[in-house]
Each structure stands twice: as structure tokens, then as C-alpha cells.
């Protein structure tokens, strides 16, 4: 079983991706093979395996990003299709594809699942500097999710007006483009200083969950990592964080 649609990877233009405004992003359909997509949909990890992440204070006065979270490590118990898919993502084809999109930057992957219930949202924000980008796979079928309930990641353009260290509302942006989420769509974007995005409040029946699987591209520049560890050494902190242990 192959999960990645290698023909799709070959048709995405890295230069067009990097030159897109207001920051690099694409929202392709069919990044996964149809059979692989259906197999992954049918074997999503159970929510009982997740950690609740609610009411957490964020920087800059931004609202809490509320959801259930499952972080991947080599010890994570997964259905076999998901284990195989993650191994494929760690392989040369996908890693080389992301390297080309990011212009040769040094990176490592981190993997996690987010399940989001009714009434929750992701307030507009720019990712931390340590992230080079993310690939969000939307994992709800039409049998369990009505697109009118929401759940789209919204690409936001502030026209360069807003500080990343602020807490704007969706209405503060010049444009807001919602990603397509159904039928094997995914969203891939690169971080810049103005890479604003968010998810409007979900309005779904109780018990329904917005489900995504996310590949994060973490900055692994050796010089940056060395500086981080020297600072930790001086402050008598662990040299390697839990998040770094979950990078591949």
C-alpha cells in the first residue's frame, strides 16, 4: 500500500509555492492515494488516546487553541495503516519534496493529531520562529462531517500591518481565504513573519470532532540548535526538550 500520491508531489512547483502571497501555501486535493486516504480515514486513532488541551494560556493575549492532542513518538500505539503512513512520511520521497519547497533549509519532522469538538476555535496567529511550516491533512469523511460545521484553516492577509506579537480578530484582516478540507484535501504552508492563519469557531453536533493530522517542519539548522543548547546549559536546563525528542 502506498499512501503518498507521488505524481501529485512531482506536479507541485516549489518556486510558485515560495513566491505566493501573502506567504507560501497550497491546498491540493489528492495528495494521498485514494485507497490510502480511505484506509487512513477508517483507522483514525481513538480520542481516548489523546490528551485534552483546553484553557491553556497563550502569548500576546491570544485565545486558547482548544482540542484533543496526540503527539507521535516511536512508542505511540497506532493502527497499522497509520504506522506505515508515518514511516512513508519519514522516507526520502516526502523529505526531498519538503526540502525543495523550503529551498534547502535544514529541518526535522514532528507529527501530531488534533481532534476538535463543538464550540472550539484556533485564534489568528503566526507560528513560532522554530517552525518552518506545516502540512495539515484533513481527515473527516462526508459520512461523519458536514462542511457547513466549519473546521477550515483560514489563510489571513494583514497587508503587513499587524505585529505577530498581537491578538487580532478574524475581522481585522484584509482578506481571509478558507482552505478546502473535504475529499482528500490538505493544506501545506511555510512560515514567514506574516503567516497568519486560524480556524473559526466550529459549530457541530455534540460528539462530532474535526480531525486533522499535521506534519510540522521544525528548524534544525545546526548553528541554531547549538545556540539553543548553550543557553540551556548556562541555565541548567535539559539540553534536549521533549518536543525535540519527538523530531525525525
What does this structure look like?
There is one protein chain. The chain is of the alpha+beta class. It is 23% helix and 24% strand. It has a single domain, classed as q2cbj1_9rhob like domain (Jelly Rolls, Sandwich), CATH 2.60.120.620. It has helices at residues 6-11, 14-18, 34-41, 80-89, 92-101, 222-234, 242-245, and strands at 25-26, 51-53, 67-71, 107-116, 122-125, 131-138, 153-157, 175-178, 186-190, 197-199, 210-219. The strands form two sheets. It has a seven-stranded antiparallel β-sheet. The mean pLDDT is 93.
In DSSP terms (H or I, runs of 4 or more residues), the helix count works out at: 7
What is the percent of helical residues? 10-25%
CATH topology: Jelly Rolls
Largest sheet: 7 strands, antiparallel
Tags for this model:
single chain, 248 residues, alpha+beta, Jelly Rolls, four-stranded antiparallel β-sheet, 11 strands, globular
Q: Could you provide a short overview of the structure?
A:
With 248 residues, this protein is of the alpha+beta class. The chain has a single domain (6-245), classed as q2cbj1_9rhob like domain (Jelly Rolls, Sandwich), CATH 2.60.120.
Strands, helices and their partners?
Blueprint: H1 6-11, H2 14-18, E1 25-26, H3 34-41, E2 51-53, E3 67-71, H4 80-89, H5 92-101, E4 107-116, E5 122-125, E6 131-138, E7 153-157, E8 175-178, E9 186-190, E10 197-199, E11 210-219, H6 222-234, H7 242-245
Antiparallel strand pairs: 1-9, 2-3, 3-4, 4-11, 5-10, 6-9, 6-11, 7-8, 7-10
Amino acid at each position: 500500500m502506498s499512501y503518498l500520491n507521488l505524481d501529485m508531489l512531482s506536479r507541485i512547483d516549489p518556486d510558485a509555492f515560495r513566491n505566493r502571497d501573502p506567504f507560501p501555501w497550497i491546498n491540493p486535493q489528492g495528495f494521498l492515494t485514494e485507497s490510502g486516504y480511505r484506509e487512513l480515514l477508517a483507522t483514525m486513532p481513538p480520542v481516548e488516546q489523546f490528551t485534552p488541551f483546553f484553557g491553556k494560556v497563550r502569548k500576546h493575549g491570544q485565545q486558547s487553541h482548544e482540542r484533543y492532542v496526540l503527539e507521535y513518538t516511536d512508542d505511540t500505539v497506532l493502527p497499522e495503516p497509520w504506522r506505515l503512513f508515518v514511516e512513508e512520511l519519514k522516507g526520502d520521497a516526502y523529505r526531498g519534496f519538503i526540502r525543495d519547497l523550503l529551498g534547502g533549509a535544514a529541518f526535522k519532522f514532528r507529527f501530531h493529531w488534533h481532534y476538535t469538538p463543538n464550540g472550539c476555535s484556533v485564534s489568528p496567529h503566526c507560528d513560532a520562529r522554530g517552525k518552518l511550516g506545516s502540512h495539515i491533512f484533513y481527515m473527516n469523511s462526508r459520512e461523519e462531517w458536514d462542511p457547513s460545521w466549519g473546521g477550515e484553516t483560514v489563510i489571513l492577509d494583514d497587508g503587513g500591518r499587524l505585529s505577530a506579537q498581537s491578538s487580532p480578530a478574524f475581522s481585522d484582516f484584509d482578506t481571509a481565504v478558507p482552505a478546502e478540507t473535504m475529499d482528500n484535501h490538505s493544506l501545506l504552508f511555510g512560515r514567514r513573519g506574516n503567516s497568519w492563519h486560524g480556524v473559526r469557531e466550529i459549530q457541530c453536533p455534540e460528539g462530532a470532532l474535526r480531525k486533522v493530522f499535521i506534519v510540522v517542519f521544525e528548524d534544525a539548522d545546526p548553528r541554531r540548535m547549538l545556540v539553543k543548547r548553550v543557553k540551556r546549559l548556562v541555565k541548567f536546563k535539559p539540553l534536549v526538550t521533549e518536543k525535540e525528542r519527538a523530531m525525525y
